[in-house]
Write a structure and sequence with these properties.
Length: 154
């Protein structure tokens, strides 16, 4: 077998030590005087109680509203893009329709102003020269007979 590279020696409590000991202020933190099971007292590092482990984060499920929003976002964006492209293609037609609507509005406004004025002018001229009476006499014989008539203007 093999022999250890150094020899282990132990001190019994009766043997004097070469080191008279440390003052309590000289003991580094984490080192305490302990009594071993054999009765010997020595300085030793004592195990500090381990701090409690941080709780392990549990994976949370993704909310339904977040999934729905994530799925609808490209759809809505694509719809807006398609609407923009459609409007760019339709712009010349929309401009022409706008011009036609303005022309229709102008025609309606002119008719609303002009027709009453024409009616007033027509009534005024008709009232100034008297009325014309026309008498018609029409006769016809049979269902498919030829009609004959006379017009008299007194």
């Amino acid at each position: 077998m093999h022999e250890p590279a150094y020899q282990i020696t132990t001190l019994t409590p009766q043997q004097p030590t070469s080191n008279p000991g440390l003052l309590p202020t000289e003991i580094p933190p984490g080192v305490q005087m302990v009594t071993l099971p054999g009765g010997a007292r020595t300085l030793a590092y004592t195990a500090q109680p381990a701090p409690p482990a941080p709780p392990v984060p549990v994976a949370q499920p993704i909310p339904t509203w977040a999934k729905t929003t994530a799925l609808l976002t490209p759809t809505i964006g694509g719809g807006i893009a398609a609407a923009g492209i459609g409007l760019s293609y339709a712009a010349p037609g929309l401009i022409a329709m706008t011009d036609a609507l303005w022309a229709a509005v102008a025609l309606i406004a002119a008719a609303a102003i002009g027709v009453p004025m024409l009616l007033r002018i027509g009534r005024a001229t008709a009232a100034g020269r008297g009325s014309t009476h026309i008498t018609q006499n029409i006769t016809a014989s049979g269902m498919f007979g030829k009609a004959n008539g006379t017009i008299s203007n007194p």
